[in-house]
Amino acid sequence: MTVERHGRRKTTAVPLIQQSPWSKPQMNFEPARILSDDHVETIHLKSMQVLQEIGMDVLNPEARDILQRAGASVSGDRVRIGRDIIEQAMQTPPREFTLHARNPARNVQMGGKWITFGPVGGPPNCSDLDRGKRIGNFADNANFLRLSQFFNCIHISGDGCVDATDLHVSVRQLHVMHNKLRLSDKFPFVYSTTRPVLMDSLGMVRLSRGISHEQMLREPSAYTIINTNSPLKLDLPMAMGIIEMARMNQVCVATPFTLAGAMAPITLAGALVQQNAEVLACLSLSQLTRPGAPFVYGSFTSNVDMKSGAPAFGTPEYMKATIAGGQLARRYGLPYRTSSANAANALDAQAAYETVFSLWAAIMGGGWSRPMKSSRWMSSCCRWSNSFCSRLSWMMTRWAWMRCWRWGRAATSLVPHIPCRAIRPRFTSR
After folding, report:
1. Are 290 and 244 in contact (CB under 8 A)?
2. CA torsion sign, 68 to 73 to 77 to 78?
3. Cα distance between residue 234 and residue 237, in whole Å
4. Per-domain residue ranges for the chain?
5. How far is CA 250 from the centre of its chain?
6. Residue 193, Ramachandran bin (φ over 0: left; ψ between -120 and 50: alpha; else beta)
7. CB-based burial of residue 428 (10 Å sphere; 0-12 exposed, 13-18 middle, 19+ buried)?
């Protein structure tokens, strides 16, 4: 009598997580509209009025010189930018461009109806089911970069996933940059915290692609995110980042952090005016430095909890602002970046519905170009969640297959009147 040895039979390896092949989704429906055309134009005109009459604090002397040579009025740190400068800057940035990854098969198209998903960037904490919440370190950063590389629905490597707080800040970003280029072949992010860090990171990207300086000037190979110091302030490193990225013809994503009721007017209309004004100021500096430099319109307007002052995400106000931001980006012909955010502290129902609302608004609002930070965001961008990543990656894959969603009628009461006095009192002494 013989006994069959089932354990010796060869078995076919099945991946633990089933996912669709790498692909670049493209949406075939019209974006949602929450503003009428005249309301979009009203926000645009009020934004230019803010920049011309109130102005913006630009703390970088080189940036002030560039704007002044173009005709802007400079008084101390305050720069007032005329409409002619802004209108000229709106004519030169490309509507679509290719993001060149280390692996050419991972190149992605930015702009138009192309969707680009990316992971959250920069939270100081992380969590998983085994070890719970903890402060991020270099090993966590590497593991989460591996996770970003694994999921096919994530198209770019992101902003650093979780901060490597165990490394000294003077060398932290260089080690993190080495991690990105070593563990991922997707389009990378570079930090613009200081000029040496930025230029060293761009040099590392160029070496990883094996290209010349001239070829890198022709092919956008990295991106950075510029967060204005709202309200109406562009600080030293962010202005430097705009200038150097434009000189290198690399992608600059300008994203004001305008929270209605905190650093922006409490009405969504007023907050959108301020957001738009700050983006247009960054656009002007970028295009004056190098006409035609790739530039992305970023939106991050939301409300705050009026009891605690804490940021709130996935709320009706956040959804409205996200959809309206997409309309403004299309008004200027710019690719659009937004986020899939939530303020939940646990992997619970709040995390689910706030993320769904944010992601829904990002896609339906025309955030086709880059619904960035669409995976792993928890605790108002203070924590990266490993377990949340897998669930949200599944959600993004489902979105990539949708083709026929529709939105209702536009909201005609959002922008009845936008007084600049909601923004002006902060700066009347300038």
Report:
1. no
2. negative
3. 9
4. 37-410
5. 15
6. alpha
7. exposed
178-213 pLDDT, tens digit each: 999 999 999 999 999 999 999 999 999 999 999 999
Question: b/e string for 259-279 if b means 16 or more Cβ within 10 A?
Answer: bbbbbbbebbbbbbbbbbbbb
Q: Among 98-107, 258-267, 376-385, which range has the highest average pLDDT?
A: 98-107
Q: Which residue is associated with the tokens 């932290």?
A: 172
Q: Does position 368 have pLDDT exceeding 80, yes or no?
A: no
Nearest to 302 by CA among 276, 322, 278: 322
Check if the beta carbon of residue 336 is closer than 8 Å to that of residue 367: yes
């959002």: which residue's tokens?
Answer: 414
b/e per residue 360-391 (b: at least 16 CB within 10 A): bbbbbbbbbbbbbbbbbbbbbbbbbbbebbbe
Question: Which of the four CATH numbers 3.40.1390.30, 3.30.1380.10, 3.40.50.300, 3.20.20.480 does domain 37-410 have?
Answer: 3.20.20.480
pLDDT > 70 in the chain, percent: 81
The encoded tokens of residue 361 equal 């608004």
Length of the chain: 430
Please tell me the distance from the alpha carbon of residue 308 to that of residue 291, in angstroms, as a whole number.
43
- CA angle, 256 then 70 then 195, to 5°: 55
Q: Are 189 and 180 in contact (CB under 8 A)?
A: yes
Give per-residue pLDDT as tens, 389-401: 555 555 555 445 4
**Among 346, 270, 274, 261, residue whose Cα is nearest residue 305:** 261
Judged by DSSP in three states, 262 sits in: coil
> Phi then psi for 195, rounded to 5 degrees?
-65, -45
Cα separation of 81 and 234, whole Å?
Answer: 13
Dump pLDDT digits (tens) for 315-348: 888 899 999 999 999 999 999 998 888 888 877 8
Determine if the pTM surpasses 0.70.
Answer: yes
**Which uninterrupted H or E stretch holds 110?**
strand 108-110
